[in-house]
Specification:
alpha+beta; Thiol Ester Dehydrase, Chain A; two-stranded parallel ribbon; 13 strands; globular
């Protein structure tokens, strides 16, 4: 059945989250990231990993599937939707003890060769209404038609591009354990069976369970923070990239830092076979 273009402009109800130190520490531990900023409860407050907003966004993404226009899809069609690109803007770090709300708004739909491209804006706000993080997420519903004219109610911000790559990229290997997806699922509270249930993954046409795209991105961000930002995650302002090849487990992925322009690092992540798992990656940052 076709996707309905009347989804554009619709928003979910805000979903409330209580962010405690345990959740922040669990997310970092799920990435094997022992940065004291995430784990040091002897400090005034622990702060969340820069990619932690994906934990808050997941329930809202699930909620968006109940909006009028989405319900035209069959369960099988909905299961073929993939997370294609991510662009997270961090207004300030998230700290323990905060009450936050996250809301999704569909801002664009377009018929493309594989199916329908859907752009969603995800806003996370403080209890006082302050915008804390905003993500522009691109999803592709494969093998689905679009009912109505494709349109955008709000264009996503332009992405930075690398003006001049380094002659020799910096390569940083990252081991991915056999149970990485299971651990990430529980620590992030992002439950999607293709990452943990082999039967479901095989029925979906996958070769095996696969690592979450956001886990792959978060592993890369952890290394970038350690190697280039002196271990200070509060300096991260924006993270983006396109999700490509699947990451199987166990394996070793490779973070390739391709270049740097002012306050932006450009990178890609390669699978064990050398295919890009994340392409057009970038991380912008501020001062200490």
């Amino acid at each position: 059945m076709p996707y309905d273009a009347t989804l554009v402009g619709q928003s979910t109800e805000p979903i409330r989250h209580e962010v405690d130190a345990r959740w922040i520490m669990s997310y970092a531990a799920g990435l094997n990231d022992c940065n004291p900023a995430y784990l040091g409860t002897d400090r005034a407050k622990v702060v969340a990993h820069p990619l932690f907003p994906v934990c808050l966004e997941w329930p809202t993404i699930l909620s968006s599937r109940h909006m009028p226009g989405y319900d035209t899809l069959t369960p099988a069609e909905a299961a073929r939707s993939v997370h294609a690109a991510h662009d997270l803007h961090i207004l300030r770090p998230i700290a323990e003890g905060e009450t936050l709300t996250t809301q999704a708004t569909v801002t664009g739909m377009e018929a493309i060769k594989p199916g329908v491209a859907v752009t969603t804006r995800l806003d996370t706000r403080s209890a006082e209404g302050e915008l804390v993080a905003r993500t522009w997420q691109l999803g592709i519903a494969r093998g689905v038609a679009l009912n109505g004219t494709g349109r955008a109610s709000e264009p996503p911000p332009p992405r930075p591009s690398l003006p001049s790559p380094w002659r020799q990229p910096q390569r940083l290997p990252i081991p991915v354990a056999a149970n990485a997806a299971h651990v990430y699922t529980e620590c992030a509270r992002i439950w999607n069976p293709i990452h943990t249930d082999r039967r479901v993954a095989l029925e979906a046409g996958l070769p095996d369970i696969i690592l979450h795209g956001t886990a792959t991105l978060a592993l890369a961000v952890s290394r970038l923070v350690d190697e280039f930002l002196d271990g200070e995650p509060g300096r991260v302002r924006r993270i983006g990239g396109h999700f490509r090849a699947m990451v199987l487990m166990p394996s070793t992925i490779v973070l390739e830092v391709l270049g740097q322009s002012a306050d932006i690092l450009f990178f890609q992540v390669l699978t064990a076979s050398g295919e890009p798992a994340i392409s057009q990656g970038f991380l912008s940052y501020g001062g200490a």
